[in-house]
Amino acid sequence: MSSSSKVKLVELFYDVISPYSWLAFEVLCRYRNVWNINLKLRPALLGGVYKGAGNKGPDDVPRKFHYMVTDLLRLGSYAGVPLRVPAQPINVLLGKGSLPAMRFVTAVAEDSAGDAKVERVSRELWTRIWSNGQDINQLSSLAEVGQKAGLSARKVEELLEQSQSKAIKDKLWNTTEKALDYGGFGFPLTVCHVEGEPKVFFGSDRFELMAHCLGERWVGPKPVHPSVMDSQSHATMRAAMAS
Amino acid sequence: MSSSSKVKLVELFYDVISPYSWLAFEVLCRYRNVWNINLKLRPALLGGVYKGAGNKGPDDVPRKFHYMVTDLLRLGSYAGVPLRVPAQPINVLLGKGSLPAMRFVTAVAEDSAGDAKVERVSRELWTRIWSNGQDINQLSSLAEVGQKAGLSARKVEELLEQSQSKAIKDKLWNTTEKALDYGGFGFPLTVCHVEGEPKVFFGSDRFELMAHCLGERWVGPKPVHPSVMDSQSHATMRAAMAS
């Protein structure tokens, strides 16, 4: 297969409460302009997927949890994602969940035509909880996130109001159910649509396999940053990587 | 860091009941002659690690188990490890455990000076259970494995007898405890000793990170097969990969 073939749809189901989702998010955002893919961000609720799948977080096995912290710091450092261990106990942060935050992201997604705003808002939320150890659910936190992501104060207010609506609550639940329909039991969940078939990948450690499945090439979590290249270079790079 | 520096000890703790351990085993055996490492095989008991860590297998979440089968087949195909879904239910195979098998591997390890025999016996066991869906615990199964791995009928008989001894039972338990001491909660568990510090990696999906930690380079699960190169080529290749 060559990457010069048809653009492939890649869906990323995630929740900002999940630090491994942050890794997958940043890596896929970087590869969006390297691989011949159309990346669609699918904000959903990890708690809902856990409940629907009868799964639990890794924190029910203390050693697994302890390893996870080391693993995340190592992966973050290697991938250039500023994951940090929060000063307050992680269980406290996790215990609060992410319902208001993910409703806000969903409102942003429904309001905007493309994924650019969703991307910025999601990144700001991850930075708050998984880099700065700050709250992500209070109205004031979400307002700050919205403004840091480049939304006007008025727009933020409007989106916060919408995020309480039935339409947004339903949309968030529908996306979560979609993840369950794909067999999801945790996040990140990436669905690559290849020749009419959805190929499902769980976790942030299957990019090499994903590339293989997409007919593309994996060159590590930090491919050449797309902003330094024009679209001609993109095409050249894609061709070189597929050869 | 350059790979021309001191040879680094890498320990692989595994149980042949674990299919992900097979992937890690084959990949590390291939890289043994590509990276500047001294690979030591550490046969241990997954059941013991689960018990000591308060962990459970992935089969307590049905969706996770279902995904695992797809994931294993995809990874096996990509890595060139002949993993297959057994005709009989996996739970039946797993339910029988691997105690006699891992005692036999331990007896082989204690009997031989190097890891060559342990490698061949382990591979034959994985092939039986995870490629052919056959029993790995009956005496007749172990005898067949031993002979396929190149041991004489007499040697196999002797090792099977030794595998029932207190010394071997203790050795298997000690290795399992060692894995727990390193924070283990499942297999494969790889411990890279870098500058006097043990760096612990769980799973068969951290090789790229492991390479980074060892000052080596990851070139996918199928590096050039070492048998086609002489030792001069090894040195050249290592130098090229470290540059």
Automatic annotation (TrEMBL), chains A, B:
Keywords: Transferase
Cellular component terms (Gene Ontology): cytoplasm
Origin superkingdom: Eukaryota
First-tier enzyme category under EC: transferase
Boundaries of every DSBA-like thioredoxin domain copy: 10-213
GO molecular function, one term: glutathione transferase activity
List of catalytic residues: S18 (nucleophile)
PANTHER family per record: GLUTATHIONE S-TRANSFERASE KAPPA, GLUTATHIONE S-TRANSFERASE KAPPA 1
Family from the record: Belongs to the GST superfamily. Kappa family.
Name of this protein: Glutathione S-transferase kappa
Organism, scientific name: Coilia grayii (Gray's grenadier anchovy)
